[in-house]
Amino acid sequence: LPGEEAGILRDVEDWSALALASTAIGQSVGVTGIQLARAMAAIANGGNLLRPRIVLRIGDGREGEPKVIREIASEEGCATMRGLLRLVVERGTAMPADMPGFDVAGKTGTAQKAVPGRGYVPGKYTSLFCGFLPKDDPEYLALVVLDEVKTTPVWGGATAGTIFHDALSRIALISHLAPVAER
C-alpha cells in the first residue's frame, strides 16, 4: 500500500545464534498489521500472496476477485500450517478465540514494547491474535492488535483472542455462515 513501511527480517546469512533464537519467538522481526494479515491469508488460501484492498463500502459482491501477486508457499505446506494453527486455537494459547463448530485457526502474539537503542519497557506489551475460519475453507480472516494492554493477563490469546471470538461470532451470525458440519 502507498506509504506502508517495510518489514524487518534480516538475511539468514547474518543470523547469530542469538538472532536465531530471537527470530523463533518473533523478537527480531517487525511487520505491519497488513503484512501479518497478508501472510496469514496466504496460509489460509493455499499459498497465494494477495494484493491488499481497502474497503470503502460494502457492495453487491461483484467488485472483482482478489489479485494474486505470487505464490509464496505450496498448498501442502499451507495445509500443514492450517492444521497446526487450528491446534493453537483448539488446545494452545488461543483457546479463547475458538468458536465451536467453526474450526477457527490462528496464532497469538505478545510482544514487549521496545525503546530503540534502550531495550524493552517493563510492563508494556502489544498483544495480538490473527486468525481465520473455517480452517479448510476460509471465509473470514481478522487481526486484532492491542497496544499497551492494561488488563491481566496480557497474553494475546486472553486479550485479542477474546475480541476476535466476540467479533467473528457476530459476523458469522449476521452473514449466516454455517458451522463446518452443516456445510
Describe this structure in words.
The structure is a single chain. The protein has a domain at 75-182: Beta-lactamase (3-Layer(aba) Sandwich). 29% of the residues lie in helices and 22% in strands. It is built from 4 helices and 5 strands, in the order ααββαβββα. The chain has helices at residues 17-24, 33-45, 75-91, 160-174; strands at residues 48-50, 68-71, 105-115, 119-133, 140-147. The strands form 2 sheets. The chain has a 3-stranded antiparallel β-sheet with strand order 3-4-5, with helices on both faces. The chain has a two-stranded antiparallel ribbon with strand order 1-2. The longest helix is centred in the middle third of the chain and has 17 residues, at 75-91. It is globular, with a radius of gyration of 17 Å. The N and C termini lie far apart (35 Å).
CATH-derived architecture of one domain: 3-Layer(aba) Sandwich
Principal-axes geometry comes out as: globular
Query: Radius of gyration from the CA trace?
Result: 17 Å
Q: Find the CATH topology of one domain.
A: Beta-lactamase
Number of helices: 4
What are the defining features of this structure?
about 180 residues; alpha+beta; Beta-lactamase; three-stranded antiparallel β-sheet; two-stranded antiparallel ribbon; 4 helices; about 20% strand
